[in-house]
Amino acid sequence: MIWLSTVLFIGYLGTYVLLPILAVRPGLDESWRAFLTWAFEHSKQFGTEVIFTYGPWGFLLEPRGAVDVYPWQVGGRLVLAIAASSGIALLGVSWIRSVMPRWIWAAAIAILADPSILMPVLLFMGTMPSVAESRWKKPVLLLIAFAAGLSACTKFTCFLLVAALMPLMVIRKSLALVVPAVVASFLLFWLVAGQGVSNLPAFVSQFMELSRGYASAMVHSLPVVELPLALLVCGLPVLQFAAQTMPPVNVEKLGRLGWLALIEFLIFRHGLIRNDENHWFMAFVSVGVPIGILLIPLPGDTSRVWPTYWKATYSILLLETLAIILLSARGVVEEKITLLLDSFRLYPVYARELPALRAHEPLVPAGAGSVDVFPSELSYAIQKGLPLRNRPVIQAYSAYTKELCEKNAAFLEGQNAPQAIYFHSGAIDDRYPTMEDSLAWRSLLTHYAPSSVADEYLILSHRERPADYELKPILDRSIRTNETLDIPSVPGGLIWAELQVQRTLTGRLLDLLYRKSKMNLRVETARWSQEFTLLDETTAGGFLLSPYVDSPASMLEIFQPESDRVSAENVRRILVQPGKLGWLGYSRNVRIRLYALVMKAPAEDVPVPGGLIHDLALTMRAERPVGSVDFAPELTIGGGAVRLVVGSPSSGWIPLEAGKVLRVGYGVEGERSTCSGDVSFRILVGGGATGEKHLLWKDDRQSQAGKDWSAEGTVRLPLTAGQPNLYFETESAERSCGAEGAYWSNLRIAP
User: Fold this and answer.
1) Residues near 342 by Cβ (< 8 Å), separated by ≥ 6?
2) Angle of helix 200-217 relative to helix 402-412, nearest 10 degrees?
3) Structure confidence at residue 698 (pLDDT)
4) How far is 732 from 727, CA to CA, in rounded Å?
5) What pTM value is reported for the model?
6) Which among 555, 590, 560 is positioned nearest to 575, based on CA atoms?
């Protein structure tokens, strides 16, 4: 017992407890990881200020941030590691007589399982009755109970599983100390994280709201071979446990079987609803397979032993399934190994910083007010040291029910709203962008206005007085799926839609027990037609249908008159259609209500989107088709400026305003471009009294595919008769600069 637990603990110490905290990085998943660490440091209240599937100690699973939180990570992980190593050793010594199989069994569990998520399972196994009680059982059980309280503060699934164990432990009088130990531990770690006890009901109720809409909103990718694998991983342990412990039947045994069935059901849904590599790994490799391995040597209650061939078959099926899953999720496995190696390399840096434990100085701009990042990139604000004031549902893609959307909208419209929103549109799973956190979009229009740009973000500043708005009904009817609906034109071009699709009884059952396919929304503008996945909960509450907003530049434009829009295209037609197997979950009737969203903002709140760059985009023309039959000028935001992305070759013109000097920025964005060879940027003047064009300025550059470069040019403007225009052209000798690469920016005329 001592040797096995010591070796396991040393392994945890080097690969889990003492690992340095990785730096904050950009990325969708990296954002919530960084936020959980930041939220712990700032004692954010989970359930009210933070609505997410993790608890206040959730950063222990994958921390991101500075060295300051490192002592808390070491302390929390130390508790989990001691309990995990002791619990695994206790079960191994109690169940497996041979030394070598015992060590292999214990090592497999320790390598695969996350200690936090494993803790409820160890508590479940440790409290099972046994014929011969080990003298180590009570002290180890109290260690596990203490760690289980911490586990319940990391992820709500662990909280649910620990809470579900309480009635089973109350039944047995010999476990009288375990229940109060778990409760006391949970409250201790809850309070240490700066949480209020009165916050617990909100923590529970808001997670239940997240769970209610998860299966419908987050379903992605139809499982094929993954389904039988999931059934094996989650079904085999239930069969093993049922056959070993059932006879004779009593209430306690039925309760224990029900608890195991509950955790396997949660694992099954967790892995298959998203059905991607990350969720297969988290559900099956980190939890499902370790539980199956844990149950291999499970002793029966009677003298009757299982035939050898059953246990051999059970073990072989389990390990073969693990091998297939690891192969399927090899990208995640490689990423985990890379992160572990990076942590080892980072440790010498930590060794130098630990004695001081100095906080990194935040790079907060002078006079900066509170900010939020919409829709999801919170890591940007944390990385820049901006004073973050987050929406309760911290990432827009998680606000997938009407209640969750209402909470975020109420926050943005309330007294504690952030002073600025860093906006960068982006949706997951091919969703229509404005369906994510749908009501927040209207709050952004009424309570914020564009003020500047930074990096790739449009900065929306809080209005002193919110703008009024009116929803004028323009259409209310029912249509059938696969029936095209023409969207009428309205003054201003802003259309708010409420779209209701009815779930069938089969759909509700699939939602509860498994997963179901989503509906699709086909959207057509004057230039393109595209299919999006439909979030039926948020569309019923209302969302911005038109114009189509998929970038900071198009968001900037919807604050403008309709005639000044380039990127934000009006939606002309929509079509609701079932996805794969979607006909099983929804009825064929769709109720649609359309409203003209009439904004009543003060004139001074209407920003100039990009000055002359915007005017140039309105007149930009291609000399030949580029990428499509109709050349579509594209505005983006980057480098603190609005950019006009151009084609090759392409040209556009603007009237020559009074002035002496033209200043302009230009360049190639490597991440979006395949430009290579000679690239030419030219400015001409013409169209005056003579009608001829004359070259004013030219810059020929050597560009390399995938490489960024930018420059600025200054051009002295001529005095010409008539009403001349300035012409802007971009061309590459090899015609390799597509519309995704070369750009003009910061176009301005000085007197």
Assistant:
1) 22
2) 120
3) 92
4) 17
5) 0.90
6) 590
Strand boundaries in 300-375, DSSP class E: 371-374
Give the 3-state secondary structure of 374-406: ECCCHHHHHHHCCCECCCCECCHHHCCCHHHHH
Within 10 angstroms of residue 78's Cβ, the number of other Cβ atoms is: 17
Asked if residue 402 lies in contact with residue 541, where contact means CB atoms within 8 angstroms, the answer is yes
Closest CA to 618 of 505, 728, 499: 728
Query: CA–CA separation, 585 vs 501, rounded Å?
Result: 10
Phi, psi of 426 (to 5 degrees): 180, 125
Six token digits for residue 619: 């007149």
Measured in whole angstroms, how far is the alpha carbon of residue 103 from the centre of its chain?
39
Span 60-80, pLDDT tens digits: 999 998 888 999 999 999 999
Comparing C-alpha atoms, which of 492, 502, 743, 557 is closest to residue 641?
Answer: 743
Contact 56, 49 (CB under 8 A): no
Are 543 and 549 in contact by the 8 Å Cβ rule? The answer is: no
Give dist(CA 591, CA 505) in Å, integer. Answer: 18
Q: Closest by alpha carbon to 442, among 409, 479, 466, 483?
A: 409
Other C-beta atoms lying within 10 Å of the C-beta of residue 86:
26
The secondary structure element, H or E, covering residue 586 is strand 586-600
If residue 244 lies in a helix (H) or strand (E), which one and from where to where? Answer: helix 226-245
Burial 208-224 (b: 16+ CB within 10 A, else e): ebbebbbbbbbbbeebe
User: In the predicted model, what is the mean pLDDT of the chain?
Assistant: 86
End-to-end CA distance of the chain: 84
Rounded to the nearest angstrom, the gap between the alpha carbon of residue 383 and the centroid of all alpha carbons in its chain is: 17
Please report the domains of the chain, with CATH numbers, ordered by start residue: 1-203+330-368 (no CATH), 219-328 (no CATH), 371-462 (no CATH), 474-545+563-604 (no CATH), 612-750 (2.60.120.260)
| Distance separating alpha carbons of residues 623 and 631, to the nearest angstrom | 9
Mean pLDDT, rounded, for 679-702: 82
**Ramachandran area for residue 431 (φ above 0: left; ψ -120 to 50: alpha; else beta):** beta
Angle at 516 between CA 512 and CA 520, to 5 degrees: 140
Parallel/antiparallel/unpaired status of strands 420-423 and 371-374: parallel
13: which DSSP letter? I
Share of the chain above pLDDT 70, in %: 90
Return d(Cα 735, Cα 271) in angstroms, integer: 46
Report the C-alpha gap between 438 and 497 in whole angstroms. Answer: 11
Contacts (Cβ under 8 Å, ≥6 apart) of 241: 256, 257, 260, 295, 298
What sign for the dihedral angle of Cα 441, 442, 444, 449? positive
**All residues at 6 or more sequence positions from 55 whose CB lies less than 8 Å from its CB, including other chains:** 46, 152, 153, 154, 155, 156, 159, 203
Is the distance from CB of 376 to CB of 408 less than 8 angstroms?
no
Token couple for 304: 């009757």
